[in-house]
Amino acid sequence: MGTASSLVAPGEVIEDGYGGEGGEACEIPVEVKPKARLLRSSFRRGPRAIGASFKSTGSVELEYAAEYERLRKEYEIFRVSKNNEVASMQKKEAKLDEENKRLRAELQALQKTYQKILREKESALEAKYQAMERASTFEHDRDKVKRQFKIFRETKEKEIQDLLRAKRDLESKMQQLQAQGIQVYDPADSDSEDNHTTITAVGSHCEYWSGGALCSEPSMGSMMQLQQTYRGPEFAHSLIDVEGPFANVSRDDWDSAVASLLQVSPHVSQALWSNTVRCYLMHTHETRGELDSLTQTFSPRLQRLCEGLGHFYLDVCFCDETAAAYPSERRLEIERSSVCVLLLGSAVSSCVLEDAEEMFLKTPDSRPLVLYLQTADQKAPLTGPSRELLERINKADKNGKVKVVENSGSPEDGAALIFTQLEKIIKQELLGMEAVDGDCEECEVEDTGDVLWDLHDEQEQMEAYQHMCSAVAHISVQKYIDRLNDLVAAPPPTPPLLISGGPGSGKSLLLAKWIELQQRHSPSTLVLYHFVGRPLSTSSEPVLIFKRLTVKLLQHFWSLSSLSMDPCKILEEFPRWLERLSARHHGNIIIAIDSIDQIQNSERHMKWLIDPLPANVRVLVSVNVETCPQSWRLWPTLHLDPLPIQEVKGLISMECVTADIKLTKEQEKKLEKLFRTASTCSALYCSLLARLLTESVWSLDKILQHCVLCQDTVSLFRLSLKVALESLINDQERAIMRELLCLVCASHNGISESELMGVSQDLCFPALCSLLSRLQRLLILTFSCGLLRFRHLQACDAVRLEFMEDEVPMNAYRGKLIQHFSLQLSQNRVTWRVADELPWLLQQQENKAKLQFCLLNLFVSQNLYKRGHFSQLLAYWQYVGKDKVSMATEYFDSLKCFEQSCEGEDSMSCLATLYETLGRFLKDLGLLSQAVAPLQRSLEIRETALDPDHPSVAQSLHQLAGVYVLWRKFGNAEQLYKQALEISENAYGPEHSSVARELDSLALLYQKQNKYEQAEKLRKRSVKIRQKTARQKGHMYGFTLLRRRALQLEELSLGKDSADCAKTLNELGVLYYLQNNLDAAKVFLMRSLEMRQRVLGQDHPDCGQSLNNLAALHCERRDYEIAEELYEKALDIRKRALAPDHPSLAYTLKHLAILYKRRGKLEKAVPLYEVALEIREKSFGPKHPSVATALVNLAVLYCQLKKHSEALPLYERALRVYEDSLGRLHPRVGETLKNLAVLSYEEGDFEKAAELYKRAMEIKEAEQSLVCGKAPSRHSSSGDTFSLRGPALHAHSPR
Question: What distance in Å separates the CA atoms of residue 1024 and residue 43, rounded to the nearest whole number?
Fold first, then answer.
């Protein structure tokens, strides 16, 4: 054991063994051995004893001393270490005490927080219970309100149906009475002071357009009334009509109507929006015989009926054996179906039950419904689910909309009954055959020999535009729209604006979105657009494009008579028409053409774009940057860049989230590597890739592996085709898909489903529906005008590359289509599809002999001509080597041969129509000498086969007179026009539209002969006739009258300053106000005011009228402060110039009160309404209906001020006045009862409200029994009735 010196070296530091953080290092002292050395030296000095062992004694002492020293040192070390340990423990104890204090403080804080959270939890629970109580109370109140208004809802539904039936009955009776020459009495409205002026003598209502009514304030007032009665939610409406062509049209409705008319002309029937009549058939095992007989025997007849009206017909039926395999397809077809037929038997399958519940129970008002029942004794009675379904249908059919067909005979008899019902539904409810016939007649009357319109071409453009507008913009187009607005707003002269980009970059989408915004924010801007489809399709034909744009442009100015139908002249005259009409238009004109580079010979036909455009005309064209001509690249250009990677990721992520697909990080990295080029960052490429990821049956890794190899959109579409093929079950379905796509690619404008079923005999409808649904989801196909077409041009290219690499397959598929349409031609089924497809297919096959044989089929040529396809018809004849003269000879000889086989009245009538069509065609081509012979022959046949006084004879006379007018043989033309006028008056009566047509033709003829007085007399009579027929014609014809009247007044307004000229200017301002051209209206109204102030003086009542109209104009523009100032000036003039009880003074008071009310100044409006009421009482007496109307207005205002107690006596007094003066069954009484019902409801008296409303409905039902009564109108003649259901409309609320 060593000493302490062996443990620690001198100066070495020993650390605390406890490892405490606060420990200190200790230094242990170490000594040497001096004492031992001193002992030795002392022993040496002393004497040495003899005989003793000095060494052993000293050795022992030394050993003890060493042992002592060692123990002492160890003790010292132990003591020091223990002292150090004690000090370290004390410091650690102090530190632990501090930590303990800190933890105690934290614990106290946590305890306080816990108590606070506990209190908050208790408060939240209490609030939750209170919210549940409030919700329960709300549910109870809501159920109570539902119960109280159940009678209102049911009565209103019944009322609508009754009104529709009564309207049809009244119209038919009115027509019968008018045909018999009986004049139906039309009583004047009670509030006549709001529709007439006392300053200028006014004639009857029928002189509205030609007399002096428009110059008076009621002209503007009528518009304001229409505006004001529409604003805000209304409860009760007046049942008194407004005279003129704008009856039953509110100002806001008129705004939308004018905006649509400015963009779309002519008016397209709503039935054309659904170009395919889809009949959904559901059957049971017992009714399979009726189904087979219906589809095999009667469906072809329905198909021919629809084809004759320009529509398709398709039977939609899922057999019981396969229906369960197509649930999504059945739901889709139910949504698209036009009519539904349920052939009910004793046993109903689950699929039939589901479909019947969806159609008959959930959505019974979406389409016409037919229910077929077997009632024969030998048939099994309905039991179980069938009877239960029938009971539920009967219970749900409260309005009797389901048409029940009962049959006790054979299945063939039942199919015949179903066919009769379907034929009636298709004619009356779906296609409106009677209305269509009438419209066709009117269209023929209006467009006689001048302009022929193809509704299918127009519908194709409308659908293309609406499809783009309704598409969800996954790309950010706002920045491009802002830049496009800046380019359009550049000062003139401005060259055409070019929108360029790569294929699929979103040019069409941007153009459509911008057009939509222009139409919404600038209704005075005239926007004409055209979207070009596939190359070689009808939409890419330049002559048809510019004929359509020219006709639409001219129809806004109503000067169609001078438009040439020669294809060459159409291309030449379009820029001239654009320049002439732009000078007459008070707004801007925008022409937008999408994919202009797809037009045939676009650079040659678009030379007019290089010339300077008029100042108010802008032309926008979109073009593929790869095929853009070099001369166009100098135009101002907006280039669409590839999508940034963030937008691409967002688009892909959105589609994946919708499909509940989550990409891994590795897959996202693959996608990022893919989107590195401009072609892969296009909007179409990204959209298609997203669909592939979500719709493909392949795994995501496999899809991404193949997509990496597709560096453009066409190759990606080819991959989509492969994916679609592999998703099919067997080779037969793959062959069907390949044939379907190749047929669409080989056709001219697409192919319909019924045509596909006719070409492919083995194709069943469920398989076709499933296949089409899959191809639509992959963005390959789409529906347009009832035809299947490629959604994008790249999809067509992909099909051509994938399935038809050379011309052999293309010719084979075209041959199939030729065989199908030739079969229809041989069966005398010449539809617009046969005329469109067959000649084009024969031309593509270079078969001139068959093409000429097809063209000599008179019905094919007639179809092309009547739809305005002049250029195509001439191009076909030029292709076979015939000029115009030889073509006319061929047609005339063919008609002679056809005439030899005609027997009977129907065939001769058809022959006369063919002769007339040929004559019109030759007249339009300028071959007047050749046109006379067929027109004269048509006249002879109709006079012989029909009757000399038949209306068709008048039509032939009209056409022949048109030729003589072009020949300038005015005497012959006048005689023929007069004969046609006499026949039309005898056939239709003196107020038919055909009579107006002849009057217009005679007036134009007299005008050319400078017989202006006779022309004006005939034109006035024509205007009166058209005014009375304007309600049936709708907004379109009212717009015509506005335009004609405005043009006439513009000519009159060029004279010197006079009171009459100022009056004309005022009328012009009113007319342009009606057309929503507010800038032009303001110009004319300001000119009228200034002229009146100069000529008549500033205090003249006519100046008050102009101020009143200007105030109404500024109200329309929402300049309420200016309008208020103008109304106050007008009121001041009329107070000084007119008697205190003058109706015109009350008129201005009323409209100023309306303005106060609109601006929320209800307290200021009350005294004005009170003054207006006093004036009416003094003018008409306290028992006059006009006083009652003023009482109702004041009561409504009190209701809005929540002064129900003051409103109640006013309503009751108004009710008594109406009952005493108009009778207890007058519509005004019903309106007042409705208002009282609302007031009682707001006061909480629900029983009284229900009683009053029931009485009002009884008056409504009694009104329908009047033979000569008017149809209910939602507008008041005075515009005095306001809303009761909601607060006043704020000035800044959108329209």
Answer: 164
Beta-strand runs (E) in 785-898: 787-790
| CB-neighbour burial class of residue 233 (10 A; exposed 0-12, middle 13-18, buried 19+) | exposed
Type and span of the H or E element at 222: helix 217-230
> What DSSP character marks residue 593?
E
The predicted structure's pLDDT at residue 36: 42
pLDDT at 92: 92
Omega of the bond leading into 644 within 30 degrees of 0 (cis): no
> What amino acid is encoded at 1101 in this protein?
P
Name the pLDDT band for 57 (thresholds 50, 70, 90). low
Structure token digits, residue 994: 């055909």
Residue type, 815: G
Q: Which two tokens stand for residue 754?
A: 């019924």
Region at 1133 (left for phi over 0; alpha for psi -120 to 50; beta for the rest): alpha
Question: Residue 49 gets which letter from DSSP?
Answer: P
Please answer whether residues 595 and 624 qualify as being in contact, where contact means their C-beta atoms are separated by less than 8 angstroms.
yes
For the record, the structure tokens of 869 come out as 């396809």
Query: Which band of pLDDT confidence, cut at 50, 70 and 90, is reported for residue 838?
Result: very high
| Entry field: residues in the chain | 1295
Cβ atoms of residues 800 and 745 within 8 Å: yes
Rounded to an integer, what distance in angstroms lies between the CA atom of residue 625 and that of residue 498? Answer: 10
pTM more than 0.85: no
Of all helices (H) and strands (E), which one includes residue 62? helix 54-179
Helix (H, G, I), strand (E, B) or coil at 444: helix
Q: Report in angstroms the alpha-carbon separations of 962 from 27, 449, 571.
A: 134, 8, 24
pLDDT digits (tens, 9 = 90+) for 715-744: 999 999 999 998 888 888 899 999 999 999
Residue 851 pLDDT exceeds 50: yes
The CA distance from 599 to 538, in Å, is 10
Cβ density class 253-280: b for 16+ within 10 Å, e for less: bbeebbbebbbbbbbebebbeebbbbbb
The answer to whether the CB of 303 falls within 8 A of the CB of 295 is: no
CB 1195 within 8 A of CB 1210: yes
Return the DSSP state at 1162: H
Quick one: which of 1280, 1282, 1277, 1271 has its CA closest to 1238?
1282
CB neighbourhood size of 1292 (10 A): 7
Please state, rounded to an integer, the average pLDDT across all residues of the chain: 76
SS3 assignment, position 917:
helix
Three-state SS at 405: strand
Q: Which residue has the tokens 């017989």?
A: 1011
- 109 contacts: CB under 8 Å, gap ≥ 6: none
Written in H, E and C, the secondary structure of 75-141 is HHHHHHHHHHHHHHHHHHHHHHHHHHHHHHHHHHHHHHHHHHHHHHHHHHHHHHHHHHHHHHHHHHH
**C-alpha closest to that of 1283 among 1121, 1175, 1157:** 1157
What backbone torsions phi and psi does residue 543 show, to the nearest 5 degrees? -65, -45
Q: Counting beta carbons within 10 angstroms of the beta carbon of residue 339, is it exposed (0 to 12), middle (13 to 18) or buried (19 or more)? A: buried
Encode 1151-1190: b = buried (16+ Cβ within 10 Å), e = exposed: bbbbbbbbbeeeeebbebbebbbbbbbebbeeebbbbbbb
- Residue 344 · residue 371 · CB < 8 Å: yes
DSSP letter at 406 equals: E
**Contact call for residues 1102 and 1133 (beta carbons, < 8 A):** no
Mean pLDDT, range 377-383, rounded to an integer: 58
What b-and-e string marks burial along 1228-1254, b requiring 16 or more CB atoms within 10 Å of the CB? bbbbbbbbbbbbbbeeeebeebbebbe
Which residues are within 8 A (CB) of 1121 and not within 5 positions of it... i.e. 6 or more apart? Answer: none
Cα 957 to Cα 983: distance, rounded to the nearest angstrom: 10
The residues, any chain, with a CB within 8 Å of residue 1159's CB and separated by 6 or more, are 1120, 1124, 1291
Specify the residue for token string 């038809």: 804
Report which of 726, 724, 706 is spatially closest to residue 716, judged by C-alpha positions: 706
